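Give me the 3D structure for Protein-export membrane protein SecF.
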Amino acid sequence: MKLDVIKNGRLYITISTAVILAGIVAMILSFQQLGSPLRLGIDFTGGSSITLSLSCNNGNCGKAIDVGVVRQVVESKGFANSVVQLVEGKDLKGISVRTAHLSTDERDKLKTTITDALKQYGEVDPKKSQIDEVGPSVGQQVLRNGLLALVLSFAGIGVYLAFRFKPDYATFAIIALFHDILVTAGVFAMLGLMFDVEIDSLFIVAMLTICGFSVNDTVVIYDRIRENVKLDAGATNFNDLVNASVNQTLARSINTTLTATLPLIAIFLFGGATLRFFSLALIIGFLSGAYSSIFNASILLAWWRGRKASTLSQPPLQAN
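Predicted structure for Protein-export membrane protein SecF (320 residues):
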């Protein structure tokens, strides 16, 4: 059984439109409630950072620290939205905790909490420990740089596709990329409103990765369409060529997406809190990218070429 993407094109585009509109509504509600389209984490808003390191003797820093145990202790003391990470290096092993801006008393309480949690792993070395305050201006700079990187990646991809294929191919590939970014951002806007899920700098990394993965799938389909157009030499309707090209690359697209998504599901389930939402963003983006490459990019290209063909075939208007 072959997939007829053109016949059911309006259905596929409607599904994408409905998902994007739901995400946009969530982002608008988030902006009204939080002042930003998504719930921003401390990477972007700034906050307090406490790093405590264990004493080491000739490279021996004691047994390995279980980050999960430390995270549970920190959260049990009321610091639920903190980012807890392991810090390791030469003669260095400890824990870094980043949280919202804290008062002096709250910082002391958090420092005591971390110190107590680390007692089972060794003695904290005051000389290797530090407490920092990250201002919101630094966080905003990180956000601006991330968005700039995203815009530059879109521009680079568009220029590359315009040279490799044709401008209309590049245009619809970029539209498909916007689809993937908006779907992922929309889902996280909903998660932020319903479950207080915050985005951090890894979310920007996920977005850039999604762009690269999605456009790769689109390029494969477009490449097959271009090859079939050359081989066919105008004998077959363009819509039929698009359908044939999608079906010829369908198994590859699905297999590639599955093999990339399955490890991410494992990371989401067992990778710990730090990587959980990073992997979730990639899962959503990869699935959305496969959908947009197979359906949106190919359907929009076929519709556009069909419109151009019908316009060229119309006889010129006769003057009275």
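The CA atoms of residues 161 and 170 lie 5 Å apart. Let me know if you want a second pass.
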